[in-house]
Amino acid sequence: GKSFRCSSYFRIHERSHTGEKPYECKQCGKVFIRSSSFRLHERTHTGEKPYECKLCGKAFSFSSSLREHEKIHTGNKPFECKRCGKAFLRSSQIRLHERTHTGEKPYQCKQCGKAFISS
């Protein structure tokens, strides 16, 4: 079986089996296994943005959003298309771009049947 350093980690793990989600957002009703996830979620309602870009001052609710934003200033585009060499800032951008090569159009109009690369 799996072992845990702290009893609190074990209790959180147990919830993955029981389905218990003791932290509920009073604003929207969304429920969470971990209090930390709940606290992060609360920022979507409060608008709290504790992470600020040192270069331009733009503020973000999540550290991951700040890290993503910082790529704009560095010019670093780590996602490169293997077919044509075009580079992108985000993985979502390259996935969209790759459809120009594959011809994949996963979004289809229910009215007329026309298909599109993005929604």
Assigned CATH superfamily of the domain at 79-116: Classic Zinc Finger
Distance between the termini: 44 Å
How many H/I helices?
Answer: 4
Named CATH architecture of the domain at 79-116: 2-Layer Sandwich
- Total strand segments: 8
Sequence of strands across the biggest β-sheet: 1-2
- Can you tell me the residue ranges where pLDDT is under 50 for at least 5 consecutive residues? none
Class inferred from helices and paired strands: alpha+beta
* Overall radius of gyration: 21 Å
Q: For this structure, what is the CATH class of the domain at 79-116?
A: Alpha Beta
Coarse morphology: extended
Question: What is the CATH topology descriptor of the domain at 79-116?
Answer: Double Stranded RNA Binding Domain
Output mean pLDDT. Answer: 90
Q: Beta-strand percentage?
A: 5-15%
Sequence of secondary-structure elements: HEEHEEHEEHEE
**Roughly how much helix do the residues carry, as a percent range?**
40-55%
Largest sheet: 2 strands, antiparallel
What is this structure's SSE topology?
Blueprint lengths: L6 H12 L4 E2 L6 E2 L2 H12 L4 E2 L6 E2 L2 H12 L4 E2 L6 E2 L2 H12 L4 E2 L6 E2 L3
Antiparallel strand pairs: 1-2, 3-4, 5-6, 7-8
Structural description of this entry:
The protein is of the alpha+beta class and 119 residues long. The chain has a domain of 38 residues: Double Stranded RNA Binding Domain (2-Layer Sandwich), CATH 3.30.160. Helices cover 40% and strands 13% of the residues. It has a two-stranded antiparallel sheet with strand order 1-2. The chain has a two-stranded antiparallel ribbon with strand order 3-4. Strand 5 and strand 6 form a beta hairpin. It is extended and about 50 Å long. This is Zinc finger protein 14. Belongs to the krueppel C2H2-type zinc-finger protein family. Keywords: DNA-binding, Metal-binding, Nucleus, Repeat, Transcription, Transcription regulation, Zinc, Zinc-finger. InterPro entries: Znf_C2H2_sf, Znf_C2H2_type.
